[in-house]
Amino acid sequence: TGEISAGLAEADRAIEVDRLAPLGGFVREWCLYMGRRYDDVIAWRTSSGARDQTFLYVDTFLGAAYREQDRYHEALEEYRRAQGYAGELPLYGYAITYARMGKAAEAQEMLARLKNFARSHYVNPLFAAAVHAALGENDQAFEWIERAVTDRTVLAAGLSFWPEFDVLHADPRFAALVRRVGLPSGKAK
Question: Helix, strand or coil for residue 180?
């Protein structure tokens, strides 16, 4: 819903209840990231707050925070580390980082690996959409977003707030999609 402070309160409560479970920390990082509080993501992840430094779900928000600050060297270092924990699943944020660096060939190669992996495993369509958006391939990005909406993936509920899709906000198709699906629009609060 874009209510970052409410999400952080829930995440902090989950952490308080079970300090060893990694999911509360993940939700906390995601809220900070969606709120564009990149310095806070970095501080949380590099502190003792994020107890399990090997826990990975969806993406590494530390790498994404570095990327959003144009700190590409640090982002790539984090993505290399995190890819070791992701196993065979290519991390979509890794591909976005390459795309933002102007390394389209590397981003396309990782996108191809992601799509190949999706042939035998579930991969959220928003991941491919985000890479296409970073590559400036808006038509393909919207095709993958439509798949996510058709699949009713829970991650689509926050589509308006993903920094990865900011580049699509000026496209009238994005506003139409947000209205059609009934998603909140605007920036996270």
Answer: helix
- CB burial of residue 156 (10 Å; 0-12, 13-18, 19+): buried
The tokens for 112 are: 């191809």
User: What tens digit of pLDDT does each residue of 139-172 get?
Assistant: 999 999 999 988 888 777 778 888 999 999 999 9
3-state SS, residue 150: helix
pLDDT tens digits along 84-97: 888 888 899 999 99
pLDDT grade for 26, boundaries at 50, 70 and 90: confident
Measured CA distances, 174 to 83, 146, 178, 185 (Å)? 30, 11, 6, 10
Question: Is 0.90 surpassed by the pTM of this model?
Answer: no
